[in-house]
Design brief:
The protein is α+β, with helices and mostly antiparallel strands. It is built from nine helices and eight strands.
Length: 284
């Protein structure tokens, strides 16, 4: 609890916002808890150094060291392969995700050292040694907060984080609704254009579904087959196919289903015909 409080106070003095203060204090307390739980205690040091990883500016570094039994398989923990009934390893992974820099060194019987690093906010002025010394002295004089008060502060942080998450979810839902409306409108416009092209085409256009029932029947088809659109829609294609050619048409549609656009053209040794609504047959 003391490490969490001190980490948050230092992060605040260095200009980190509330979210980063929570990230820093949570990561520091998780590593300190591991040292206390598995090594019986340790030492936590806060320092301000030049940022690593090729980043400009300075960074807050939190070094936690202990003289405990160490970690036998560091790579298993860092890769998420380590399984423990006590939850060992989860806090380390969580702390690494919360910070910008992370380094863990440990060997069996030789203790463990964890270095956490958080880059100072963009635009933060470089802290001079005198300024750092003054802030350290101020923190050294401040009394640790009552544990209950620290828990209450932690609860407020969690509530603030929850409210921020809820606000983001609300915003995401709003953006999704906007995108959905725009998508629906785009689809409607495309369908309207397609319908306009089909309706104004000079050639008869008829489209059927998997059951070979008519789903598209344009004005040219209406004139050619002497059948109102209202009667043709939903009707079987057999209505306009002479009986002797029905199987030929059906086989062609089966070929289209299997081969798609690469299916061979409709072929018959005889001249294919269609049948108008009045029974008259004509070549196609």
């Amino acid at each position: 609890m003391a490490v969490r409080q001190r980490a948050r106070e230092i992060a605040s003095l260095l200009g980190f916002d509330h979210q980063d203060q929570t990230r820093i204090s949570t990561a520091a307390s998780e590593i300190a808890r591991n040292a206390f739980k598995y090594a019986g205690g340790g030492k936590v040091e806060f320092s301000l150094r030049e940022a690593s990883l090729g980043q400009p500016g300075q960074a807050l570094q939190i070094t936690t060291s202990d003289r405990g039994p160490g970690i036998a398989d560091v790579s298993a923990i860092l890769e998420g392969r380590f399984e423990s009934k006590t939850g060992m390893g989860k806090g380390i992974l969580g702390a690494r995700r919360l910070m910008d820099g992370f380094d863990l060194r440990s060997e069996p019987g030789g203790g463990t050292t964890v270095v956490l690093e958080k880059f100072l906010p963009p635009g933060s002025p470089a802290a001079a040694p005198a300024s750092i010394a003054r802030r350290a002295e101020e923190l050294g004089k401040s009394l640790p907060r009552d544990p209950l008060a620290e828990v209450e502060h932690q609860n407020r942080e969690l509530l603030r984080a929850l409210q921020e998450v809820q606000a983001r979810e609300t915003e995401l839902a709003r953006l999704h609704a906007i995108l959905q409306r725009e998508s629906d409108e785009a689809i409607r416009l495309r369908e309207a254009r397609l319908q306009g092209i089909i309706s104004s085409a000079m050639d008869a256009i008829i489209s059927v579904d998997e059951q070979q029932r008519i789903v598209v029947f344009n004005a040219a088809a209406e004139k050619m087959l002497l059948c109102p659109v209202s009667e043709a829609m939903g009707a079987s294609l057999d209505r306009f196919a002479p009986e002797k050619f029905r199987e030929c048409y059906r086989q062609h549609f089966r070929d289209l289903e299997e081969a798609g656009p690469t299916a061979p053209s409709l072929f018959s040794p005889e001249v294919l015909t269609a049948r108008r609504a009045n029974g008259e047959e004509f070549p196609i």
